[in-house]
Specification:
By secondary structure, the chain is of the alpha/beta class. It folds into 2 domains: about 140 residues; about 180 residues, Glutaredoxin (3-Layer(aba) Sandwich). The chain has 11 helices and 7 strands. Strands 2-1-5-4-3-6-7 form a 7-stranded mixed β-sheet. β1 and β2 form a beta hairpin. α1 runs antiparallel to α4. The radius of gyration is 24 Å and the shape is elongated. About 40% of the residues are buried.
Length: about 350
C-alpha cells in the first residue's frame, strides 16, 4: 500500500481532534447552561467503558509491558494510547456505576480531553517524524515483524536491538569524537580521525538494508550539495545491516524501491567478512547513485559501538569534537536538523 504513513496519521489526528472538540463543546454547553438532563444511559456507559478498557489492555498496554521493542517514536505514540484508552474506559464505567446524567456529561468531557491528547501527543508528533516516501504498509510491516503480538523473547526486533545497541544515547555533544579503524573501498585501513579537521564533518552511519536510510537519500544528497562547496566535509561509515534474512527481516521492504526486480535478488544476510560488507556498500553506491565518500566499519563493529549508531545515525564532528549527535534511527535520523546545526556553526564562524 503506497499511501504515505504520515498522511494516515494526520487524518487520524484530525478525526480525533474533531471528536474531542465536539465532545468538549457538547459537555461544556450542558454544564454551563445548567440544563436539566433526565436521560440515563448506564448500560451504554458501562458498555463503552468495558470496550475501551478491553481494547486498551489487550492492545497498547500489553505492547508497552509485554511486547517487543519498537522505534522509540512509535513506542511513545503507543504509550499515549495506553493511557488514553483505559482512562476513557474508567471514566465511562464510573459514570455508568454512579448512574446520574451529570456524571455522564463529565465522562464525555474527560473523554473529549483524552481524544485531544491522543492526537496532539500521540499520532500527530509521530506523523512529523516520517518522510513522505514511508508508506503505511511499510509501517505495519515493521510493527508486525517486531512481534508486538507475541513475547519479547520471540521478537526478532528485540534480538536485533540487544545485539547491536546499548541504550539510545549517542556520543554527547562536546565529547571527543571516538576514533577507530575504517576500511576504504580500495581495501586500505585508515584511521577515522584522519578525516577530522578544521572543517565540520557530517558523519553518516547506515546500511543499504535500512529502509529509512534509503528513503532519506534524496535529503542527504541535497544536504551534501548545499554544503560540500561551503566548507563542510561528508563521510559515510557503512555499518552492520539493519534488516537481513538472518536477522530482523522485513517482508517486501524493497518493493517500493526503483531498483527492485524480484525478491530473490534482494535477499541479504549479515556480512561474515569485510568482503561481504564491501559488496553491500558497493550495492548501495550503485543502486542509489550514492556520491558521498564512504568507508567500511571493521568487522568488530568498533565504530558502530563507539557511536551507538545502529541502525542509522547522523553526527557532526568539528575539530575532533562532537558538535551534533542525532537521535537514534530510524525516525531520529533527520538531515534537516543537520542543516540547521551547520547554519549555526557557520554563523558563529563569520
Amino acid at each position: 500500500m503506497k499511501t504515505p504513513a504520515y498522511l494516515i496519521l494526520r487524518c487520524i489526528s484530525f478525526l480525533l481532534v474533531a471528536l474531542g472538540l465536539a465532545l468538549l463543546s457538547f459537555s461544556i454547553e450542558i454544564l454551563v447552561s445548567n440544563e436539566i438532563i433526565t436521560a440515563k444511559n448506564s448500560m451504554v456507559m458501562l458498555s463503552l467503558g468495558a470496550l475501551f478498557l478491553l481494547v486498551g489492555t489487550v492492545g497498547p498496554v500489553r505492547v508497552i509491558y509485554k511486547g517487543a521493542q519498537l522505534p522509540i517514536e512509535i513506542k511513545r505514540t503507543i504509550l499515549v494510547q495506553a493511557g488514553v484508552l483505559p482512562l476513557s474506559g474508567i471514566a465511562f464505567i464510573f459514570a455508568g456505576v454512579i448512574d446520574t446524567p451529570t456524571y455522564g456529561v463529565w465522562a464525555v468531557f474527560i473523554v473529549g480531553i483524552l481524544s485531544l491528547l491522543s492526537a496532539l501527543a500521540g499520532f500527530y508528533p509521530l506523523s512529523k517524524k516520517l518522510p513522505a516516501t514511508f508508506y503505511i504498509g511499510e509501517m505495519l510491516s515493521i510493527i508486525k515483524s517486531a512481534g508486538v503480538s507475541g513475547n519479547k523473547e520471540d521478537s526478532l526486533a528485540d534480538q536485533a536491538f540487544t545485539r547491536w545497541t546499548h541504550g539510545r544515547e549517542g556520543v554527547p555533544v562536546g565529547n571527543k569524537a571516538p576514533n577507530g579503524t575504517v576500511i576504504t573501498m580500495n581495501g586500505e585501513e585508515v584511521s577515522l580521525s584522519s578525516f577530522f579537521g578544521d572543517k565540520p564533518l557530517v558523519l553518516n552511519f547506515g546500511s543499504y538494508s535500512c529502509p529509512h536510510h534509503r528513503k532519506r537519500m534524496g535529503e542527504l544528497r541535497t544536504l551534501m550539495q548545499a554544503w560540500q562547496n561551503n566548507g563542510v566535509d561528508f563521510l559515510t561509515v557503512y555499518t552492520a545491516e539493519a534488516h537481513t534474512e538472518d536477522g530482523w527481516k522485513l517482508v517486501d521492504q524493497y518493493i517500493c524501491d526503483v531498483e527492485y526486480t524480484n525478491e530473490d535478488d534482494f535477499c541479504f544476510s549479515y556480512a561474515k567478512n569485510i568482503h561481504d560488507r564491501k559488496k553491500m556498500a558497493a550495492w548501495l553506491i550503485d543502486k542509489k547513485h550514492f556520491e558521498m565518500p564512504l568507508v567500511l566499519d571493521s568487522m568488530e563493529n568498533d565504530l558502530l559501538n563507539a557511536y551507538n549508531s545502529w541502525p542509522i545515525r547522523l553526527y557532526i564532528i568539528h575539530e575532533a569534537k562532537v558538535v551534533y549527535c542525532g537521535d537514534q534511527g530510524p525516525f531520529g535520523y533527520e538531515p534537516a536538523k543537520v542543516d540547521m546545526v551547520l547554519k549555526e556553526i557557520m554563523a558563529q564562524n563569520v
